[in-house]
């Protein structure tokens, strides 16, 4: 049965049934009651299933290593761990789709989980909270390595040509196939289809969510696409821009110097919204000029440093964003108040001058996909070559992985709902890209009010990439999406929280774009109450 038909049938289920499924303490009816020793092979058009394995795992706490040297544990309920291996015969790839299905207290929902950087999927780390809430969860590796660090060596064939099929897997095909597999495996395991299907992703995962809405609009009832890496073909080159500015000027400020500029920007623009909270509410409107700090002396790691004209020029260039040699704006820059440490990192090795340390995803995209030369030296890239690389990437890959088609009419017709939230101090993905995309969707879909019927955006001042930062971040945006999809409660605000300098939890709400928050007592920190949005 197609996702659209399943979704339509699911919408006929009563809210009472969903609640009953979610809170039941007995094993869910169907195959879940008898474990997962037998699992039928799903059918995926254009692909061949190589194997299906299913292992019953008791509930408990298990060791988990989310990154090298950072072991931790995760707690999960009793579940069925299903792995489906498929291939596309004309390609010879090997794609893994993994699912965790709770054996008790299934909430009647399916949740697909996106990836990050060059990893197409996340597994145990993000599966655990999903299954604890009763979701049947799934993710895919798209046939490429799941590590976030390390170069995408899969990008090139042995002869140096682009592996276009694996790129297509990563860009679009594999998430769609995961949704088909997830639908079938869920139905087989529980003896009925999921009542509702959701996609949950941030960064690369956010881009994947938007790709689903654009190309496969009937796959999911609801999509949470946070901090989406849309316009990937331009974004991934633009992420090198801070390094290019430093290369061109041969000026490499220290972290201490960069932090000084940000503190000055926050001090200058904090009060623009009438709230003294150490946060720039609208960083795109912050008019602080970094040249005001020229000549200031500061102490960095016990050494006296004087801010130079060149230092201020670097900061201004990074904030302005990528431009052509004639001054044409190519893409967005870091917003004032955003940490420089990810995209404008510098190092000072022994016996060598200070130099830049490029963001790995940007450097690897240029090396492997644009130049097709893994050894390409990005430290030699100045303004003119940057422009060439930017245009080359856009021309070659926009249709493949740009993921910025504003026509969401099919998603709207399918009844889908989508939420995007983006931190305004995102260190990696420029939030103005999300704002521009939302505006283009409005232009294609009949204006802001028409767009708000199915797609809403929330901007989080001083919040970082997917989490963190000094500003509050959403506490449970997926819950807001579920309430919208299943009960028609379109969110005007999104609950957020942070821990302040006194280690106290501070709660508030974000206003949906393009509205901004106005708190009742100007000149003070925001209260836990809901702000006025206008």
Fold and architecture overview:
The protein has 534 residues and is α/β, with parallel strands linked by helices. The protein has helices at residues 3-11, 15-23, 124-132, 164-190, 204-215, 232-238, 241-249, 255-269, 309-320, 360-370, 383-401, 409-413, 431-445, 448-452, 477-487; strands spanning 48-57, 60-64, 72-76, 79-87, 95-102, 109-113, 136-140, 196-202, 222-226, 297-300, 303-306, 346-347, 355-356, 417-423, 455-460, 473-474, 493-499, 505-511, 517-518, 532-533. Helix 4 (164-190) packs across helix 5 (204-215) and helix 7 packs antiparallel against helix 9 (309-320).
Number of strands: 20
**H/I helix tally:** 15
Distance between the termini: 44 Å
Biggest beta sheet summary:
9 strands, mixed
Give the arrangement of secondary structure elements.
Blueprint: H1 3-11, H2 15-23, E1 48-57, E2 60-64, E3 72-76, E4 79-87, E5 95-102, E6 109-113, H3 124-132, E7 136-140, H4 164-190, E8 196-202, H5 204-215, E9 222-226, H6 232-238, H7 241-249, H8 255-269, E10 297-300, E11 303-306, H9 309-320, E12 346-347, E13 355-356, H10 360-370, H11 383-401, H12 409-413, E14 417-423, H13 431-445, H14 448-452, E15 455-460, E16 473-474, H15 477-487, E17 493-499, E18 505-511, E19 517-518, E20 532-533
Parallel strand pairs: 6-7, 6-8, 8-9, 9-14, 14-15
Antiparallel strand pairs: 1-4, 2-3, 4-5, 5-7, 10-11, 12-13, 16-17, 17-18, 19-20
Helix pairs in contact: 4-5, 6-10, 6-11, 7-9
Sum up the structure in keywords:
9-stranded mixed beta sheet, globular, alpha/beta, disordered N terminus, 534 residues, 33% helix
